[in-house]
Amino acid sequence: MDVKVKILRYNPEVLDESEWKTYSVTLLPGDRVLDALHKIKWEQDGTLTFRRSCAHGVCGSDAMRINGRNRLACKTLIKDLNPEKEITVEPIKGLPVLKDLVVDMEPFFDAYRSVMPFLVTSGHEPTRERIQSQEDRERFDDTTKCILCAACTTSCPVFWSDGQYFGPQAIVGAHRFIFDSRDEGTEQRLEILNDKEGVWRCRTTFNCTDACPRGIEVTKAIQEVKRALIFRRV
Amino acid sequence: MPSKPAGTLYRGREGMWSWVAHRITGVGIFFFLLVHVLDTALVRVSPEAYNEVIGTYKNPIVGLMEVGLVGAILFHAFNGIRLILVDFWAKGPRNQRKLMIGVGVVWVVLFVPFVIRHLTHVFGG
């Protein structure tokens, strides 16, 4: 079937403004939006620029705004998008656009780095594994699924208007270690997120939970960090 | 970065729109309270001045504005309770959509009878 794909193009070397361009592509209902982008780039307009690596929903490179919502292009099927109508594709919001669908991810990664997303321990390293019960592992299972695609952070209205906000993803990254029984950096991380640009900025719009391609309950994770801060208990 | 980042509106769901509505009703209620405090304070100037100002409110336009005011306060109040539950009740985030439906139902149940009664006063009496 023929599908119209409307893409928000931007090339700073040609024009200072972004502009919509519509392409017509022949696709199968089971094709993904990424297949449409590939067809356009390979067969119609080689200048179309976007990121993708694994193309199977694992690397988190191709988050973009499809029909107004943040999605991974490689996980969104054409038949789920009402292909009778035009499909709109835009870069994710709130990060500087570099070209077409490519944004500068550095502010996003900076926020992630600042929550210390690594195991913090003290004392001697044990000679064997750090044992953890299944229940303790379960506490943070949901937030281990994050692939750093930025779909959640760039769906957040607070992040659009205030780039200083850590954003949902950084809180998810912190949650993964805060609730890990083997980690000893909890206090430090909670202090970082207690900042005025930390968890208290969350207005529970649930855009992040809806956007997450891994199905992480992002807002729930943020609320758990908020409660850990209020009651000083993890 | 593009000088004019033209794009579509983000298509958030009820969570985002309830947040937008919460802000708008919040600002609206603030301006009502501002006027309300000022006109009530007039009674300290003189009871006659107070009566005169309050008297000007007795017209159908202000009557319709009161409908909007009560609608805004009811939404803001019950959505506020929903937000408290989302923040403090462990099962809140998972049930936020149901809570939203609850807010809508309570809002309709309280607002519709009020509108009927209020408008019969404004236009009937």
UniProtKB/TrEMBL annotation, chain A:
Residues 136-158 form the 4Fe-4S ferredoxin-type domain. GO terms for biological process: respiratory electron transport chain; tricarboxylic acid cycle. Residues 3-95 form the 2Fe-2S ferredoxin-type domain. Its EC number is 1.3.5.1. InterPro entries: 2Fe-2S_ferredoxin-like_sf, 2Fe-2S_ferredoxin-type, 4Fe4S_Fe-S-bd, 4Fe4S_Fe_S_CS, Beta-grasp_dom_sf, Helical_ferredxn, SDH/FRD_Iron-Sulfur, Succ_DH/fum_Rdtase_Fe-S. Gene3D superfamilies: 3.10.20.30, Alpha-helical ferredoxin. Pathway: Carbohydrate metabolism; tricarboxylic acid cycle. Its cofactor is [3Fe-4S] cluster; [4Fe-4S] cluster; [2Fe-2S] cluster. Belongs to the succinate dehydrogenase/fumarate reductase iron-sulfur protein family. This is Succinate dehydrogenase iron-sulfur subunit. It comes from Kribbella antibiotica.
From TrEMBL, chain B:
GO terms for cellular component: membrane. Signal peptide: none annotated. One of its GO terms (molecular function) is metal ion binding. It comes from the Bacteria. This is Succinate dehydrogenase, cytochrome b556 subunit. Keywords: Heme, Iron, Membrane, Metal-binding, Transmembrane, Transmembrane helix. Pfam families: Sdh_cyt (PF01127). The keyword Metal-binding applies. Its cofactor is heme. The chain crosses the membrane at residues 20-41, 61-78, 99-116. CDD domains: SQR_TypeA_SdhC_like. One of its GO terms (biological process) is tricarboxylic acid cycle. The keyword Transmembrane helix applies. It is found in: Membrane. It comes from Kribbella albertanoniae. Its main location: membrane. Belongs to the cytochrome b560 family. Heme binds at residue 76. NCBIfam families: succ_dehyd_cytB. The heme is bound between the two transmembrane subunits.
